[in-house]
Design brief:
With about 525 residues, this protein is an alpha/beta fold. The chain is built from 15 helices and 25 strands. The chain has a 9-stranded mixed β-sheet with strand order 2-1-10-9-11-12-13-14-15. Strands 16, 17, 18, 19 and 20 form a 5-stranded antiparallel β-sheet that branches. Strands 4-3-5-6 form a 4-stranded parallel β-sheet, sandwiched between helices.
């Protein structure tokens, strides 16, 4: 009834190629993703199976989640006047009511705009202006930044009271498989976020690819993930994949790496998904034994250093599943698990996807030649009213902005983000490789490397370094780190500029914001 989302899809000529190459990716014309995510599992696994748990002991069964999702849909349509196609903004940490709200919006035919609780009003304003939601469902603790926006705001206390008056039986709106279900802002690791547009079928496709063929959850799994729902990695790991498998999700609102390790041990988590930074911190603190009960671990958001991967394998026998995904494609599209893992490689295209390496003219490159990663599959980039659509889609390929090469066997190896490749005196230097070398110094907790403009060399490597407590960040330590890098990798890659910081800038999803560091060094050389 509200056609805003469909009307603001990019022109069809700018879409990437979309392919449905496996049997499970064949969808009917009419499809509501929420029905597949909660009604079907209840029918298959029963109402009494635990679906959601929290560290405080709260447990929601599949039946309770279905009832509350239906009640939310009734509140939206009966009390708040939502019509199919209207947008609903969600703002909350990861907790059970957010899952119920997320499912309820889809059941009501609404379009989700899920935002991170850490965003402030000035960050929410451009999202609201572009997606034009009419209603916001907000955790009580995070209403202040929303009250000034032109929205009908319902906090979770009010939502629960209203839901309690509803019978909890709702027939999902008869949406099309290619109706827009989700407007997901990118995490902003490269600056201004874009609004990605995903269909009902896309939500199921991430399970029918990575979930089914790589992750392979079962109904006995308890899954933990540190990413928020607004970060689509977290949405897949905590909502889509567990519900489709009949598994249970442990929802944590915040957790340091040490707290995360404790939660894994205390609650018997079997599958953990987090960023490489957390795995590195757990190893650094010597508490990796708390992860010994895991049968599967997933790393995404950034490339996991080989040294971190090898230490987890050697100490725990845990072969971490690495993967690369993108908000534009909703989840992971290159990965490998178990014996298919080749250490150092990100993996192969997940069944349902194909990938290639392109030069900057869009020509496919051969094995061993680094270039831009291109991906085609059942989901693809569709930006809401954004000129950057034509930059992301090249010749039908989704071009992610990552530099990879592939070997003769079809494994893909990560080099850097295209904007993390540093060209110095004619040498191409991958920032992540330098960071990994710096991070092996015993006094370094973490580092980030960017290009610093240089009149003589074009650019030089500039490293921002966080040291362990008690280590002195002085000129002697900088020289020590430089010498360490020279001994670890090719000497020409060493950081000519080393700067010490107490922390590195990260966005609300935990991704390192290198663009903020680049701005620091670029501003220094402006005339």
């Amino acid at each position: 009834m509200d056609t805003f989302a469909r009307d603001h899809l990019p022109p069809a000529a700018l879409w990437p190629t979309i392919e449905f190459t496996t049997p499970e990716l064949k969808y009917p014309e009419r499809l509501n993703a929420a029905t597949e995510l909660i009604d079907v599992p209840v029918a298959r696994f029963g109402r009494d199976r635990p679906a959601l748990r929290t560290p405080t002991g709260e447990v929601w069964t599949y039946g309770e989640l279905l009832t509350r999702a239906d009640q939310v849909a009734q509140v939206l349509t009966e009390d708040l006047g939502l019509v199919a196609g209207q947008r609903v903004l969600l703002r909350s940490p990861n907790n059970p009511w957010t899952v119920a709200a997320w499912l309820g919006v889809l059941k009501a035919g609404g379009v989700l705009v899920t935002t991170m609780a850490a965003l402030r009003t000035r960050e929410l304003i451009p999202i609201v202006e572009r997606t034009r939601p009419t209603i916001a469902l907000v955790d009580n603790r995070f209403t202040d930044d929303v009250r000034t926006l032109p929205l009908t705001v319902v906090d979770y206390d009010d939502l629960a009271l209203r839901a309690g008056t509803k019978p909890g039986e709702f027939t999902a709106v008869d949406t099309a498989a290619d109706d827009v279900a989700l407007l997901a802002p990118t995490s902003g690791s490269t600056g201004s976020p874009k609004i990605t547009m995903h269909f009902h079928r896309d939500i199921l496709s991430i399970d029918n690819t990575f979930g089914r063929h790589v992750l392979r959850l079962n109904e006995n799994d308890l899954v933990a993930c540190t990413a928020p729902f607004a970060f689509t990695f977290g949405l897949g790991m905590l909502v889509v994949f567990p519900l489709r498998a009949g598994a249970c999700a442990l929802l944590t609102e915040t957790a340091t790496p040490a707290q995360l390790a404790d939660l894994v041990a205390q609650h018997g988590v079997t599958v953990l998904a987090t960023a490489p930074t957390a795995y590195k911190a757990i190893l650094r603190d010597g508490i990796e034994e708390k992860l010994s009960g895991l049968r599967t671990a997933v790393s995404a958001g950034e490339h996991i250093p080989l040294g971190t991967w090898e230490r987890l394998r050697d100490r725990l026998g845990l072969k971490v599943i690495d993967g690369i995904g993108a908000t534009e494609l909703l989840h992971i599209f290159i990965s490998a698990a178990g014996d298919d893992i080749r250490p150092g490689a990100t993996g192969k295209p997940v069944p349902g996807y194909r990938a290639t390496v392109l030069d900057f003219d869009g020509t496919e490159l051969g094995p061993g030649e680094p270039g831009r990663l291109g991906v085609i599959g059942p989901v693809g980039c569709r930006y809401l009213d954004d000129a950057r659509q034509k930059d992301y889609v090249v010749g039908g390929w989704n071009v992610t902005g990552d530099i990879f090469h592939r070997d003769e066997d079809g494994y893909f190896y990560y080099h850097a983000r295209s904007d993390h490749m540093i060209v110095s005196s004619g040498y191409n230097i991958g920032g992540p490789e330098v960071e990994e070398a710096i991070d092996t110094h015993p006094d370094v907790l973490e580092s980030a490397v960017v290009a610093k403009p240089d009149e003589e060399r074009g650019s030089v490597v500039c490293a921002f370094v966080v040291l362990r407590d008690g280590a002195a960040g002085d000129a002697a330590k900088a020289r020590e780190i430089q010498d360490h890098v020279k001994r670890t990798i090719a000497p020409y890659k060493y950081p000519r500029d080393v700067r010490f910081r107490t922390s590195l800038p990260r966005n609300a999803s935990g991704k390192l914001q290198r663009f903020a560091l680049r701005k620091i060094v670029e501003d220094e050389v402006l005339p």
